[in-house]
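Re: Re: token formats

Sure, here are both.
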Amino acid sequence: MSNLALAALEPRQQAVVTALDLEFAVRERLAALGMRIGRKLQVVRRVGVSGPMQVRIDHTDLILRTAEAGRIQVRLLPEARP
């Protein structure tokens, strides 16, 4: 499965972080909050198409701007079946 931008994901989709193409300070801050290569995340909700998005990594929720989410590459995980 190919990589895509985190900004392209919809609520409830899960993915694994594959690359962070962000400025050093932003990358370090997100890493301190758990956003690292290889970490699993889930999109909780979005505010419109170009608004911010809420992402959950373990027990930490992050609010990301679309511009930041567009520079984070992820690999989509298959949807879990109930």
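Second one below.
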Amino acid sequence: MLYQCELVNRSTQPTLAIRTRTAVQNLPQVVGQAYGAIMQYAGSLGVQPCGAPFVAYHNMDMQDLDIEIGFPFVQELTGHGNIQAGEIPGGKAVTCMHIGPYDQVGGAYEAVQKWVEANNHIPAGVAFEFYLNDPQTTPPSELQTQVVFPLK
């Protein structure tokens, strides 16, 4: 697959998220449970997300991933229990769209790394994946994952 990387300027986005650690093989269950808990809590507040669900990767240790699982919201909200209020940082970022199964998103990361090096940028350390369509109703070959690396 050919990947196109793009430099963008993002606005800061308030979020509700659950930060946890898990092995890559457990991601589907962990992510699904977190999304369900956040949506239930947001519903109790009478608010809906304003964009695609995401996972922020604070490391890339596949057996001990440090991740934030969440949704963006229009307004800042108060967390509850393990659901924390936070934000997706604003500023410069590089984005790359992956179309296909989630377990093949590595090509987008490689494209971003090459783009960052070729354009003399420095990643801020956290990689985001935004899931633009629903895996329960979309064939794996058509899943859209936007990979975003905030830049220093």
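The chain has two helices and eight strands. The first strand starts at residue 5 and ends at 10.
- S.
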